[in-house]
Amino acid sequence: MADLDSLIQMVETNYAGFPIIMQKGYGNDYQTMRTDISSRLSEGSIGIQQAVCEYCYWFFSKFDGHVYVDHPLFLKSYFPKCHIRYAELFEYNPKPVSSKVNDDTWLIRVPSCQGQDPTFQWFTDAVKQYQISGCDNLIIDVRGNPGGSDAMWDPIVPLLFDHKPTSPEYTLFRNTPKNLTFYQRILDEYSDDEIAKLLIENCSRSSDEMVKIEEDSDDADFPISSLPKKAAIVIDKSTGSSAESLVRFAKMYCDTARTKIYGKENTWGAQYSGNIIGTPLPNSQIWVYYPTCVSSLFLSDDSNGSSGLSPDVRINLPYPKTLTDNCDEWILWIANQLK
Asked: Which has more pLDDT, 165 or 272?
């Protein structure tokens, strides 16, 4: 019971999406869920693992794929309720790829934004390879990419963006001592971390619970790149977080006549939050994760975020036989569509 109380206090006090979810009118549903879990835990009909998983899954399934539990029970019993185990359907192990598909189209497959496999430099080099390849069209494949850092996309943004955003966006940080302490530790270790620096500077000037992070203005004009002539971003249900950022950016800044999103399913459902903190519960040591920031779009999004981002083109083909470091059947089909 102490761990459940600690979890509830942590989420209600620090999770950036919580006050917005309450403002949207889900307070009664939340209280019913919380009371039910607490009652069953106190009477012994469920254990602390199930209680934590059910509590976090309420947020995970309805609002935000960034609220989750790093525990086998959550991964085996709760996660699959919202997600597809592609590895059980076909050989699914996406690897980095930068190669020509045909004379017109170049493929860059990016299965992670963590910066290790591939590295940020690898992606920068892959974009350069495309630019000198002689190919008009570009496919960026982010199937299986669970996210990492939005900085991965810096080299491709100038090539894709072709108009100002259709939905202006800003980031809101939940200004609490726990969240600030986390970012102060980051700044102490990495003095050039701009996100942490902005958070701390803005919060020092404000007593508001939700503080806007000042970002670069979207009013500036930018040149439209001649390449790619046509672009495709390939997604699946395992495309999450920073990988979803690329999809969201494309929907906001790119004309669909030039850049389209292709996929069979929507993305993960973690597109409107970020900057995650992980904390172990005091007794069970179960690790729970929550985001400290949310997009302003979370305020008005009718789907509440969990349904993910939809493709512009639904792929009705069967799943490919193999997805590793190859040009699979979907890529070949999309390349033909771009022609």
From this structure: 272
